[in-house]
Design brief:
The structure is a homodimer of 336-residue chains. With 336 residues, chain A is of the alpha+beta class. The first copy, chain A, has two domains: 135 residues, PurM-like, N-terminal domain (60s Ribosomal Protein L30, Chain: A, 2-Layer Sandwich); 166 residues, Alpha-Beta Complex (Phosphoribosyl-aminoimidazole Synthetase, Chain A, domain 2), CATH 3.90.650. The first copy, chain A, is 34% helix and 27% strand. In chain A, α4 packs across α5 and α5 crosses α8. β2 of chain A pairs antiparallel with β3 of chain B.
């Protein structure tokens, strides 16, 4: 009897993933073996991981390519917050088999394209079945200077934020609606907010520059909400972050959404999640160096407050201060 | 108003995870920041990832610590199959919040303990909510010699296997039964088979030794079944693997299970998954070197066949040969 080996379904998909994968100078062994192998010079390695679960971190029916792009973006944002330049990533996908191979292949395409835009390469991964779609990425890279932790902020430092907090939270509300719209909201604003949620732009080059120039004394990426992430940076640094309500960079699109939907844009900006912007502290003397680079990279930045002694994160306006560190997304609100 | 920052539930669990984490000479920044940072000498880095999904890769209700141990073991097995020594890992857990913090904490404890036994350390991770439990690990390490791929086997090489294939598949059948037993099976055999499924022993030291000594011309870990993984090694190497039925190392426990359950132990050994044993090819002249090291490490090994020209993987006995490369576990049997 002659053996003719039927290529298994899982292997067929893996072969197609291998065909999508790109090469890179350091990549000695790419996807398809038991482990990936890369060559590295001596030095520090920064590594992060994020798992996205259908129905929790993204909406059912999300476009696979956009999901792959987003899964990479949230990991790139973590590396950016460390002041690190991305190098390679591992991509795990668990998917209901009946959805067909186009779902994992679309995710891989989106992930590879998103990473390539920042000079990073797929090294390997894992494919398995599940009752619902799960995408997990582990991404590593190299700190451009000293790693920027959450713990170096000192009283007197200025607090900066990239981008426009709350846009993604408004985009999520739009995406959850059917149709994804709010009466009275202009199409351009709707598209901008939806894109902020579905396809966030990680601040990779700016984060690495802050690290390389040793300008950020502490940094975190705002993924669970400005309030709670400000609280985390404050706690790690042993300081208080005092943000000023009137300085929060509310985008025109968010303002339009808030007016049309009858909500407070500040609540979305402080309590909404999924922004993937960088919140960082800078010595006041270094602040003048930021604007030119941010402009050159097309990254909006804004000084939104100051570090003081104490603890927690507060938002202040003419009427006083309020705690914002317990706002925002908490996966485990019900866990005790 | 004085701000008192309430520590969020998710952060509370992360704090407890940080308290469990151990230090390591290379670990510059461990769990709790946006990314982990480790110091590394120049050279190759081997990296792998595996995701375990409740109901697919492990049974609902699995003990959290054992699940953490197993999640680490399956990744260590991939590194072993590359001839690499493990260094650090990232651990992502998605869990239904209502199950309480003891589930993720148990997983972390088990994972840390399992990795520590092989000299590896938790570097970071991600915690999120999900409708069902998912554990994803990314593990990296250093090839002890040249990385051992699946693709170097040549006609004439001997084919070796560690351990006893099919024990884990029998253990899964036992675990799925309620109570986990088969009439007529001795308690010691039952325990041995259940342990093979629930808490496999990755062949870390032996795999690294094979790599360091450049003894394995090709290697793969048998996780989806001996047949299908033999087929994968054969395809990557462009050869045929001819395994001999009478040489398959059927454990006494598997033989007892098969007799009691009325199944063919060879079918479980060839078609069952979750073995996490090493299948590797060795030049015939090098074969005499294997036994002493395997004995010293307490790793059972057996020559089970030979590499020939051709393609596929076959099992031969007195009656002839049959294809075994399409047996075994396929997550995507229904996907087309």
């Amino acid at each position: 009897m002659i053996a003719v080996s039927r290529l298994k379904s899982e292997d067929r998909i893996v072969e197609k993933i291998r065909a999508l994968a790109t090469t890179s100078p350091g990549l000695t062994i790419g996807p398809g073996d038991d482990a990936a192998v890369v060559a590295r010079a001596a030095g520090l390695l920064a590594a992060t991981t994020d798992m996205l679960v259908e129905g929790v971190d993204f909406l059912p029916g999300e476009d696979p390519e956009r999901l792959g792009r987003r899964a990479v973006a949230v990991n790139l944002s973590d590396l950016a917050a460390m002041g690190a330049e991305p190098e390679f990533f591992l991509l795990s996908i668990a998917v209901p088999p009946e959805r067909g191979e186009e779902v994992p292949l679309g995710i891989v395409r989106g992930a590879i394209a998103r990473a390539a835009a920042h000079g990073a390469t797929l090294a390997g991964g894992d494919l398995s079945a599940a009752p619902l779609l799960v995408v997990s990425i582990a991404f590593w890279g190299r700190p451009a200077g000293d790693p920027v932790t959450r713990s170096g902020a000192s009283p007197g430092d200025l607090v900066y934020l990239t981008g426009h907090p709350g846009d993604a939270a408004a985009g999520l509300r739009l995406a959850e609606a059917a149709p994804p719209d709010v009466p009275g909201l202009a199409a351009a604003d709707r598209q901008r907010l939806l894109a902020a949620f579905r396809d966030p732009e990680p601040r990779v080059a700016f984060g690495a520059w802050l690290g390389r120039e040793r300008l950020a004394t502490a940094m975190i990426d705002v993924s669970d909400g400005l309030g709670v992430d400000a609280g985390r940076l404050a706690r790690a640094s042993g300081v208080c972050l005092r943000l000023e309500r009137e300085r929060l960079p509310i985008s025109p699109a968010l303002a339009a959404f808030a007016a049309a939907a009858g909500v407070d844009p500040i609540e979305l900006a402080v309590g909404g999640g999924d922004d993937y912007e960088l919140l960082f502290a800078v010595r006041e003397a270094d602040a003048p160096r930021l604007g030119e680079k941010a402009d050159a990279l097309g990254v909006p930045i804004r000084a939104i407050g100051r570090v003081s002694s104490g603890s927690g994160a507060v938002l202040s306006d003419a009427r006083g201060e309020r705690d914002i560190a317990s706002l925002g997304h908490d996966h485990f609100e019900t866990a005790r």
